[in-house]
Amino acid sequence: MFKRIGNGAFRVSFINMLLNIFLSVIKLASGIAAHSDALISDAVHSASDVFATLIVILGIFFSVKEADKEHPYGHERLECIAAMILGGIIFLTGAGIGLEGIREVISFYRGAEIEVPGMAALIAALVSIGIKEWMYRFENRAAKRLNSPALRADAWHNRTDALASLGALAGVGFAMCGFPVMDGAACIFISLCVIRAAVEILGDAVGKTVDKSCDNKTEEEMKRLILGQKGVLGINGFYTRMFGSKIYVDAEIMADGELSLKNAHEIAENVHLSIEKNFPGVKHCMVHMDPYIKETVSERTNP
């Protein structure tokens, strides 16, 4: 598992980090040369992405460690903690960019002279939008394939960066057309995009650390699979909980009460193995056997 998730995630994160370093340098140089505060703010945002990606790498590295005596259920939640740290970093970055934009707008209306950005800022913003959107698609595909919340958070971070660069592009364009205050206003727009992404990332990560159940569609598919197993006469209880990127399943199934212990165990084992085989996201499925009594059958017997 470490080789499949770890190596794939590390490769994606390393590519992501190199591109963010490249974009930071390009946007910072262009922003300084073209006198664009919006582009400089966007460069700072991209620079923070490098640090954020390091957090993601560390989170994934520790989350895929095998269970041990002190952590018998594994370390998957460490990846969610990494996502929460990433969300906090993104939030603070967005707040800082917003404050800088507000300061510039206030200065403009107080009579301060604002330099108009040059063409280099416009080109740099366009390049950033294209690269960031590609990074989002590349990392999001990997996050779905590896079922990684930290990679998913970092992917959406890249999509937010693309929106932020779009805001910088608009601000630079308006400033070049005779509305210099729009460069500062673009910083405020960038800030709102960044803060919104931070809140979504934090919400998703927190949800996966408080034993939230998996989605209804997946639960219904699991129940159908269980009811299709030989010897299963009904489901008396069914519960799932998220543990980081993994799912734990607790199923109370019913079988003929006259079966021998050996036969009942075989039915439970078949259910256990079928769930773990057909749903790769399931880390463990616990099965409890009840004797079949028609009057106690749960309404969830037939999903």
Task: Draw up the topology in text.
Blueprint: H1 2-34, H2 37-63, H3 77-109, H4 119-146, H5 149-176, H6 181-207, H7 216-227, E1 234-243, E2 246-255, H8 261-278, E3 282-291
Parallel strand pairs: 2-3
Antiparallel strand pairs: 1-2
Helix pairs in contact: 1-2, 1-4, 2-3, 2-5, 2-6, 3-5, 3-6, 4-5, 5-6
Report on this structure.
With 303 residues, the chain is mainly alpha-helical. The chain folds into two domains: 2-207, Up-down Bundle (Alpha-lytic protease prodomain-like); 216-301, 2-Layer Sandwich (Alpha-Beta Plaits), CATH 3.30.70. The two termini are 32 Å apart. It has a three-stranded mixed sheet, covered by helices on one side. Residues 1-6 and 297-303 have low confidence and may be disordered. The chain contains eight helices and three strands, in the order αααααααββαβ. Helix 1 packs antiparallel against helix 4, helix 2 packs parallel to helix 6 (181-207) and helix 4 runs antiparallel to helix 5 (149-176). 68% of the residues lie in helices and 10% in strands.
